[in-house]
Specification:
Elements: E1 4-9, H1 12-22, E2 27-32, H2 40-56, E3 61-63, H3 68-75, H4 86-105, E4 110-113, H5 123-137, E5 140-141, H6 151-162, H7 173-197
Parallel strand pairs: 1-2, 1-4, 2-3, 4-5
């Protein structure tokens, strides 16, 4: 019998590759827990796409209550830190703690997160927060590195094959603002170069 494993899901493209890679070895349960995602329309879209992937692979799917106010109060003291810093650590801690609690409530012995596939996520930070959450909930955290063997590149190919929505920011309003600023800078540089060529 395959060991049971709860997967914390952040988005459908990352979920698809991880489920594809693990479903032959583990009895999976996909758990969507992302109070960081903003606005609510974006949350609903990402949740719907994640549920679609779970149906595609015939894997049970559930989602946590959407509590953006809790996320905001959790990261508020760190809101001026850059992506990848302390605000992300506390965001991970919140989502992984809730995932660990769901894992225990469902009677599943272990959990992990698909977030390690992202080139923008620090695996050491994920593993630290996952292990802490697991200890508090009385379950095990399995530290996978889904970036290995070009996991991110393969996730892009698979999500394109499945026709999945691919977001262009982490999910929170802070990362969305940073994305918008990068777009403005690129546009400014493009306009500046074009102006210089006239």
């Amino acid at each position: 019998m395959k060991p049971r494993l709860l997967l914390h899901i952040c988005c459908a493209p990352d979920e698809a590759w991880v489920v594809h890679a693990l479903h032959a070895e583990y009895d999976l349960h996909c758990f969507f827990c992302n109070p960081n995602i903003s606005p609510p329309e974006e949350y609903a879209l990402r949740r719907s796409e994640a549920a679609k992937v779970a149906r595609r692979y015939d894997v049970p799917f559930s989602s946590d209550e959407y509590t953006p106010a809790l996320w905001e109060s959790t990261v508020h003291p760190y809101r001026n830190t850059p992506e990848g810093g302390e605000r992300c650590r506390h965001c991970f801690a919140l989502r992984l703690s809730r995932s660990a609690a769901a894992c225990a409530a469902l009677g599943i012995p272990s959990f992990t997160t698909v977030m390690s596939i992202s080139p923008h996520k620090r695996i050491a930070m994920l593993d630290e927060e996952g292990a802490c959450a697991a200890r508090r909930a009385g379950v095990k955290y399995l530290p996978f590195n889904f970036k290995k063997n070009d996991g991110f590149g393969k996730s892009i190919i698979l999500s394109n094959e499945l026709g999945l929505y691919r977001q262009d920011y982490c999910g929170c309003m802070l990362s969305r603002n940073e994305r918008d600023e990068r777009i403005r800078r690129r546009q400014f540089m493009t306009d500046d170069r074009q102006h210089g060529q006239r």
